[in-house]
């Protein structure tokens, strides 16, 4: 999760998030180089009185500054499209979880099990235990197996919501009457926090998401205890 005064992204805990962070760094470097070049040219124009008359009307220069931006856009677009297709692709998920947004809580249903569903409300500040995070802790965490592809089916019962867990690289809108699909997979066990990322009413800020990624054996034990 994020920490105070953090400037960068949260640590990646899924292959998709790792790809997104690499793409972010790749694009940021291109932006930095372009900004440096533009700043250098502006400084040069303001500080020198020398002009080269042959560059004021030159086909070669115009050709370069037309082709170069196109090449830069291609260098950004190709990895972007690759990640986009990776995020949409779902290969034989090991588990499917249906998530429904409500005002103002989440409900979860493990569709591979006959009767495994629950609601997840934010834990009030007065009920927090030592070490739990204010406005981020819930009464029922979503327990999932790590290192396995998991399909999330996301929708809403009332208004627009958005199910987002930054460290796993997932942010999917919950739309009434529409079922959106996303894939998550965690490289390591742990607690991963998220929140509703679509303004959905007065208690929009009080819809936290907590995923607890555990080894498969622990998940099986938990699921048997819940049924």
TrEMBL record:
<dbReference type="InterPro" id="IPR001505">
    <property type="entry name" value="Copper_CuA"/>
</dbReference>
<keyword id="KW-0479">Metal-binding</keyword>
<keyword id="KW-0249">Electron transport</keyword>
<feature type="transmembrane region" description="Helical">
    <location>
        <begin position="66"/>
        <end position="85"/>
    </location>
</feature>
<dbReference type="InterPro" id="IPR036257">
    <property type="entry name" value="Cyt_c_oxidase_su2_TM_sf"/>
</dbReference>
<keyword id="KW-0813">Transport</keyword>
<dbReference type="InterPro" id="IPR014222">
    <property type="entry name" value="Cyt_c_oxidase_su2"/>
</dbReference>
<dbReference type="Pfam" id="PF00116">
    <property type="entry name" value="COX2"/>
</dbReference>
<keyword id="KW-0460">Magnesium</keyword>
<dbReference type="InterPro" id="IPR011759">
    <property type="entry name" value="Cyt_c_oxidase_su2_TM_dom"/>
</dbReference>
<dbReference type="InterPro" id="IPR008972">
    <property type="entry name" value="Cupredoxin"/>
</dbReference>
<comment type="function">
    <text>Component of the cytochrome c oxidase, the last enzyme in the mitochondrial electron transport chain which drives oxidative phosphorylation. The respiratory chain contains 3 multisubunit complexes succinate dehydrogenase (complex II, CII), ubiquinol-cytochrome c oxidoreductase (cytochrome b-c1 complex, complex III, CIII) and cytochrome c oxidase (complex IV, CIV), that cooperate to transfer electrons derived from NADH and succinate to molecular oxygen, creating an electrochemical gradient over the inner membrane that drives transmembrane transport and the ATP synthase.</text>
</comment>
<keyword id="KW-0679">Respiratory chain</keyword>
<dbReference type="GO" id="GO:0005507">
    <property type="term" value="F:copper ion binding"/>
</dbReference>
<feature type="transmembrane region" description="Helical">
    <location>
        <begin position="27"/>
        <end position="46"/>
    </location>
</feature>
<feature type="domain" description="Cytochrome oxidase subunit II transmembrane region profile">
    <location>
        <begin position="1"/>
        <end position="91"/>
    </location>
</feature>
<keyword id="KW-0496">Mitochondrion</keyword>
<dbReference type="InterPro" id="IPR045187">
    <property type="entry name" value="CcO_II"/>
</dbReference>
<dbReference type="InterPro" id="IPR002429">
    <property type="entry name" value="CcO_II-like_C"/>
</dbReference>
<dbReference type="GO" id="GO:0016491">
    <property type="term" value="F:oxidoreductase activity"/>
</dbReference>
<comment type="similarity">
    <text>Belongs to the cytochrome c oxidase subunit 2 family.</text>
</comment>
<keyword id="KW-0812">Transmembrane</keyword>
<feature type="domain" description="Cytochrome oxidase subunit II copper A binding">
    <location>
        <begin position="92"/>
        <end position="225"/>
    </location>
</feature>
<dbReference type="Pfam" id="PF02790">
    <property type="entry name" value="COX2_TM"/>
</dbReference>
<dbReference type="InterPro" id="IPR034210">
    <property type="entry name" value="CcO_II_C"/>
</dbReference>
<keyword id="KW-0472">Membrane</keyword>
<dbReference type="GO" id="GO:0005743">
    <property type="term" value="C:mitochondrial inner membrane"/>
</dbReference>
<dbReference type="GO" id="GO:0042773">
    <property type="term" value="P:ATP synthesis coupled electron transport"/>
</dbReference>
<keyword id="KW-1133">Transmembrane helix</keyword>
<comment type="subunit">
    <text>Component of the cytochrome c oxidase (complex IV, CIV), a multisubunit enzyme composed of 14 subunits. The complex is composed of a catalytic core of 3 subunits MT-CO1, MT-CO2 and MT-CO3, encoded in the mitochondrial DNA, and 11 supernumerary subunits COX4I, COX5A, COX5B, COX6A, COX6B, COX6C, COX7A, COX7B, COX7C, COX8 and NDUFA4, which are encoded in the nuclear genome.</text>
</comment>
<protein>
    <recommendedName>
        <fullName>Cytochrome c oxidase subunit 2</fullName>
    </recommendedName>
</protein>
<keyword id="KW-1278">Translocase</keyword>
<dbReference type="GO" id="GO:0004129">
    <property type="term" value="F:cytochrome-c oxidase activity"/>
</dbReference>
<keyword id="KW-0186">Copper</keyword>
<keyword id="KW-0999">Mitochondrion inner membrane</keyword>
């Amino acid at each position: 999760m994020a920490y105070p005064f953090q400037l960068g992204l949260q640590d990646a805990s899924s292959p998709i998030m790792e790809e997104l962070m690499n793409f972010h760094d790749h694009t940021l470097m291109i932006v930095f180089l372009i900004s440096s070049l533009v700043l250098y040219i502006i400084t040069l124009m303001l500080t020198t009185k020398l002009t080269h008359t042959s560059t004021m009307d030159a086909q070669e220069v115009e050709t370069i500054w037309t082709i170069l931006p196109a090449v830069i856009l291609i260098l950004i677009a190709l990895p972007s499209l690759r990640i986009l297709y990776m995020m949409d692709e779902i290969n034989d998920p090991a588990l499917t979880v249906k998530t429904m947004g409500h005002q103002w809580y989440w409900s979860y249903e493990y569709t591979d099990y006959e009767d495994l569903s629950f609601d997840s409300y934010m834990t009030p500040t007065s009920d927090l235990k030592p070490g739990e995070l204010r406005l981020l802790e819930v009464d029922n965490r979503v327990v999932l197996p790590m290192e396995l592809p998991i399909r999330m089916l996301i929708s809403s019962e009332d208004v627009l919501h958005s199910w987002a867990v930054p460290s796993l690289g997932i942010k999917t809108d919950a739309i009434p009457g529409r079922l959106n699909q996303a894939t998550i997979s965690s490289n390591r066990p742990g607690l991963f926090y998220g929140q509703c990322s679509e303004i959905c009413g007065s208690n929009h800020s009080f819809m936290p998401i907590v995923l607890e990624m555990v080894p498969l054996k622990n998940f099986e034990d938990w699921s048997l205890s819940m049924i």
